[in-house]
Amino acid sequence: MSSWMKNGMFRMKITQSGMDMTAGFTWQHRCNRVLALVAGVILITCAGCRTDTYTHSRFRERSARLTTVALMPAQIRTGIRGDLHCHTTDSDGKDDLEAMAMAARERGYEYLAISDHSKRVAMARGLDAKRLGQQIRRIDRLNERLEGIRLLKAAEVDILENGSLDLPNDILKELDFTVCSVHYHLNLPAEKQTERILRAMENPYFRILGHPTGRLINARPPFGFDLEKIMKSASERGRILEVNSQPDRLDLSDVHCKMAKEHGVRLAISTDAHQTSELDFMRFGIAQARRGWIEAKDVINTKSLEDLLVCFSAGQRRTKEDQLFFEVVT
Question: Do residue 94 and residue 243 come from a single domain?
Fold first, then answer.
């Protein structure tokens, strides 16, 4: 039994046993995928690699990973309990709060975070403090009558050029957590870009770094910065890095996922969904994380709602005792 699911961005074939990735992407994304059959499983191995930069050494690197791909951790597939990054009609999303909540519940999620843009992203009708406060109250009222799903109060807060956050702490403290992202001034010198993000991470309400490298596959390369330095700071401060599942982002890359694991940095696999159907992008982020040898224990949204909120509350600068506590609850 199979059926075809279509979306403006891609199409895929769903079978009883899962997704048939051989259906491929449409020309708009021009994502060149190399399909490999390993242990009876078809995997996408080269997410969005440009043909003009796909050198023989890159091929050997990917091929080496395929020789042991059957050993990659698989438990993430069924371990995701919620999505920590999505948008609604309050900013640039196409579906409202309740529609997104119902779609998440249908997918078996325990929680869904509403993280609309902050005011700096004016083209997306980003929220200022007043509008975000109004949304927070609407989410509270909606949670009172929702069954089987909990909406988390979040925001995708812009990291400004000087490293400050786009919204004041007075409103950020009312949220369950923040996703903090760079959308502007992508061409800063690497040292300045690094310092910008490090300064943002010092904010006590910073929790997740959204689409960390800023890349758009086949459209925009990652911006220049010292990602390893960012990861070391994230590990020290209890910050989380996102694996953004949007097909044109897939950010972090598989290589950077593995780097995060080596630095002890927790990840959030999120869809950045702008409509209910995009919640299904989660499978792409999971595949990306698995290629980076990420396990369920490395992913923050495999935690129960209670443990997740405890982890977020422990996300400020940690002492040695705090570090042990964070490791226990995660």
Answer: yes
Residues 26 and 155 in one domain: no
Q: What is the 3-state secondary structure (H, E, C) of 71-91?
A: HCCCCHHHHCCEECCECCCCC
Query: pLDDT tens for residues 278-326?
Result: 999 999 999 999 999 999 999 999 999 999 999 998 765 443 434 443 4
For residue 140 the two structure tokens come to 């509270």
Task: List Cα–Cα distances, 159 to 20, 56, 97, 180, 201, in angstroms.
Answer: 38, 38, 25, 6, 10
Say if pTM beats, i.e. exceeds, 0.90: no
Q: How many other C-beta atoms can be found within 10 angstroms of the C-beta atom of residue 25?
A: 19
- For 162-175, b/e burial (b = at least 16 CB within 10 A) is ebebbbeeebbebb
Question: Which residues contact residue 161 at a Cβ distance below 8 angstroms, ignoring those fewer than 6 apart?
Answer: 184, 185, 188, 196
Residue type, 173: K
Residue 147 DSSP symbol: -
Residue-range definition of the domain harbouring residue 8: 2-71
Q: How far apart are CA 106 and CA 65, in angstroms?
A: 35
Using CA atoms, how far apart are residues 209 and 295, in angstroms rounded to an integer? Answer: 19
